[in-house]
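Exam prep: given the inputs below (a chain plus adenosine-5'-diphosphate), describe the expected output before reading on.
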Amino acid sequence: MSLILGLDSSTQSLSALIIDPERGQIVAEESVNFGKDLPQFGMESGFLAGGVEGEVHSNPQMWLDALDLVFQRLKDAGAPLDQIEAVSGSGQQHGSVYLKEGFGQALAELRPDASLADQLASIFSRSSSPIWMDTSTGQQCAEITQAAGGAEEVCRRSGSIAIERFTGPQIRKFSQIEPAAYEVTGVIHLVSSFLASVLAGKSVAIDTGDGAGMNLMNLATADWDEVLLGATAPDLKSKLPPVAPASSVAGTISTYFSEKFGLNPECQVVLWSGDNPCSLVGMGASQPGKVVISLGTSDTLFAAMAEPLTDPRGYGHVFGNPLGGNMSLICFRNGSLAREAVKDRFELSWADFDAEGLARTEPGNGQKVILPFVGDEITPRVSSQDFVPVGWAGEPTPDEWVRGVLEGQFLNMKRHSDWLGVETEEVLLTGGASENDGIAQIAADVFGKKVRRLSVAGSAALGAAMRAAVAMGADIDKLEAAFSAPALGRDVLPRSENAETYRDLEKVFAQALKNSFNLA
Ligand code: ADP
Ligand code: XUL
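Solution:
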């Protein structure tokens, strides 16, 4: 009994990872792709296409079928399910599940001879679940902001200003458009706490990591905030589970799973958390001092924080760090999409973004910048139709465009993460574009820090497993050394000869933002 299971219910798939914390090994991996493996739900990418006015919903019954299927696959593959000591999980953040009174009872009565989805079919008070991609609650955000005393106050309390995809505004909308269904809702869960409840066979708590993505939890007290509850929807407190630290053990695994799939009946269920909080752990960055930058479709920057500071400009978010304290999450919408736009516009290749290509221009482009927003941006919140070169006498050359946009992206990240209040020792780079040495060098130079590359695939499931292992007494440093080690020989050091250039360029960038978008 020494293995640990981590699950990750993301937008498009549910994956499972079994680790042996003592040996530092991955023992088994399986996954279920919602579109491919559960085509009966008609959600090719895990959500319903064609939602009106920014609505993006998914189907909680699909998540239940996926849970059954992933355990069946583990069992069929001969995974040692009877040796799993603890399980935890990661859920796409912000998504919400609406359940009638009696949810806990229904879970306690689950029989192994029928599926989860069939047995729980009548327990939902709302058949679909809004997810993080939903942008339909602008009006509700404005109403909550007004009722709670302004954007700064909402941010001070919850760690973020009112955000469309966050759960509070989503709940408010549901209470307004379907008041009768809201009325009969007994409990509202997040994707994470919903699936943790199913595993535990009872309705369990929401953890502080994912709970902070609701605009409902008070960061300082790590509990529901009366002012925000009151500003959001009637009688809301009675419809929310309690908040608890992510390290809490919710109970032992439901007999549904031990009888049906052969899990050990003593297997402990540790609370689930959100995917970003779990990734923080999986990336080996749960202790303050490291900043993770993920260069994916969008870029994200996250870091463990020593103090629960909030972003004075209102762009970044603060969530609970599942291993204690807090973490920041900052999203930059113009990530790879913007890099690809430059590449396509000038018919370049990724080699032009690499060391060789970048050698054709000078660091800092002679103290000229390009504001790197090919489309609307959320950090900073600006509406933009194209990149803005600032201070250029003529049109930049394609090589200057490449350098300008990359430098602009990292300068923008540095500027908008200056409120974190952590002394960064190193920057951990991950995501598709992190492979590129030229891009990594610009990151190192702009931040003035050592950049390390991580090749952890599936950091959310891994982080969930590592959290469960820590809850069972494993040492986080040992786990990080075994599972989250930076790729060997791929560190990039900042070049001291460029330090002054980039310090000056930061000021040029700040001035350009101010002049072009009227931003402080
Ligand atoms: P996501 O998980 O958001 O789908 P990934 O982290 O997988 O994204 O990153 C994929 C992106 O990485 C691609 O769309 C591409 O723009 C970018 N990418 C891949 N290779 C390179 C490279 N060598 N240099 C720069 N960008 C790259
Ligand atoms: C974070 C966010 C996304 C989802 C993706 O605020 O909305 O990263 O968690 O699953």
